[in-house]
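Field log, afternoon session.

UNIT: design team B
ACTIVITY: writing a sequence onto a fixed backbone
BACKBONE:
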């Protein structure tokens, strides 16, 4: 007997295109035919269908009980039974080929439906085994078809993947045959959009007369691999590709907040004090961050360091905006950023995107819902903050000058600070007065305002003045054992 060429062709097609094994397909066909036969009124419920794996010949028989008079589809008369088996007797079980009427139009439809279900079950099993552990990984796919902005793609390893319109960024433009990169975000039965009822919409605070839809994990009958370019997983996977420190766990992402196509905020921390977490993400001259921005079509990315101090973390999360100070109310979970009038717009961001993403970043990182808002400083508070900033700047500059004086004269910081208290911050300033006047000034224990100040002995003052003179003359000050 020759090979069933039509069935052979179909089996090869399924095995090549969908990755379903030949033996699994044959099992699905047998199950579908048996299910259709058992529901037919022209057939006994006891059926046996087999397919020869070599020739693909189908053998379909039903088992009937021999009775004196056939009074049901499960029985056969003695006369009819002896036509098949001459020595048949009452009570025997006879096998006979299944009547063609069993596989009529209705039964064929039932068999087709059962076969499709079996194929889908096999595809689901294949996809679960092949891709379930790859959720969160980036794959390269080829666009095969675009339908209603949904891109149906072919996976490199075989199989189909779907990039829904909601998983594409607004500035993504794809053509058939184009190769694109996306992250696997879901493996299993396809998710469908369904309309929310009024009760559910009210519970979620959705108002208005516009149609309301919600994405839910409901079966649509299509097993698939779902891709995304808008999910946070895509950003995380891109950083893992570029950063070796993230791959080995030295640097980790604490949380991500994203508005696809607009801005993404990433909070990172380093598990090694010698490794800069932000530097590991940005790379030398942006060598690591630039490919990520390019893949995201120019989407802005803010990388901030994780900080257990919520106020400092919130301040960093609002970058690149400049924040004067942050107020945290742990009872209401409210964070208020105090800002200058001119900085109000960049802190809030267009349509509030900056504060919203900062709130999401902090909330995700801490596991607690925080709300961040921006408030303009009043003129009084603003002036006080500006004054404090000026004072802080003066303190930093004074400390730098004392450090320089210490190095120039070869004295310790304590002695240099004592000299600065008397108004001398440079070697030039010291030698501008006579040695006797300098000794007298260094012995004075109070300022002109009556504030106490430390002093130097006459011997120490002479040594300092000599050291300053040596510096101005281009020499090296003599070693000064002690000036305290």
């Amino acid at each position: 007997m020759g090979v069933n060429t039509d069935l052979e062709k179909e089996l090869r097609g399924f095995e090549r295109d969908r990755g379903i094994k030949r033996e699994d397909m044959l099992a699905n066909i047998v199950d579908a035919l048996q299910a259709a036969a058992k529901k037919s009124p022209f057939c006994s419920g006891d059926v046996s269908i087999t397919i020869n794996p070599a020739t693909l010949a189908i053998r379909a028989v039903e088992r009937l009980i021999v009775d004196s008079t056939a009074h049901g589809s499960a029985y056969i008369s003695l006369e009819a039974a002896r036509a098949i088996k001459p020595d048949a007797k009452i009570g025997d079980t006879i096998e006979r080929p299944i009547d063609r009427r069993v596989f009529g139009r209705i039964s064929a439809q039932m068999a087709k439906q059962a076969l499709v279900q079996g194929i889908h079950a096999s595809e689901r099993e294949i996809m679960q085994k092949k891709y379930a552990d790859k959720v969160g990984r980036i794959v390269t796919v080829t666009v095969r078809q675009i339908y209603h902005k949904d891109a149906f793609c072919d996976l490199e390893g075989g199989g189909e993947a779907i990039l829904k319109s909601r998983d594409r960024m607004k500035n993504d433009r794809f053509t058939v045959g184009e190769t694109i990169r996306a992250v696997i975000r879901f493996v299993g039965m396809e998710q469908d959009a369904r309309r929310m009822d009024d009760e559910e919409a009210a519970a979620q605070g959705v108002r208005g007369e516009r149609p309301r839809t919600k994405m839910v994990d409901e079966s649509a009958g299509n097993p698939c691999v779902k891709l995304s370019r808008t999910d946070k997983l895509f950003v995380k996977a891109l950083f893992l590709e570029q950063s070796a420190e993230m791959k080995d766990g030295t640097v980790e992402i604490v949380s991500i907040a994203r508005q696809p196509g607009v801005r993404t905020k990433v909070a990172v921390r380093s598990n090694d004090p010698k490794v800069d977490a932000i530097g590991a993400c940005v790379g030398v001259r942006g060598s690591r961050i630039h490919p990520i921005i390019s893949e995201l079509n120019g989407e802005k990315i803010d990388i901030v360091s994780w900080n257990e101090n919520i106020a400092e973390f919130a301040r960093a999360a609002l970058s690149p905006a400049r924040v004067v100070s942050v107020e945290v109310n742990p009872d209401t979970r409210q964070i208020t950023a105090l800002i200058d009038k001119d900085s109000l717009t960049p802190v809030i961001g267009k349509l509030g995107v900056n504060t919203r993403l900062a709130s999401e970043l902090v909330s995700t990182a801490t596991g607690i819902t925080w709300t961040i808002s921006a408030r303009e400083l009043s003129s009084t508070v603003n002036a006080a903050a500006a004054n404090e900033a000026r004072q802080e700047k003066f303190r930093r500059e004074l400390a730098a000058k004392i450090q320089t004086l210490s190095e120039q004269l070869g004295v310790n910081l304590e002695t240099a600070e004592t000299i600065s208290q008397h108004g001398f911050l440079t070697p030039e300033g010291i030698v501008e007065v006579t040695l006797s006047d300098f000794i007298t000034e260094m012995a004075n224990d109070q300022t002109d305002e009556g504030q106490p100040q430390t002093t130097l002995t006459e011997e120490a003052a002479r040594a300092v003045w000599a050291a300053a003179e040596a510096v101005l003359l281009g020499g090296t000050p003599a070693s000064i054992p002690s000036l305290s």
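LOG NOTE: Residues 191-195, 206-221 have pLDDT under 50 and may be disordered.
NEXT ACTIVITY: expression trials, pending approval
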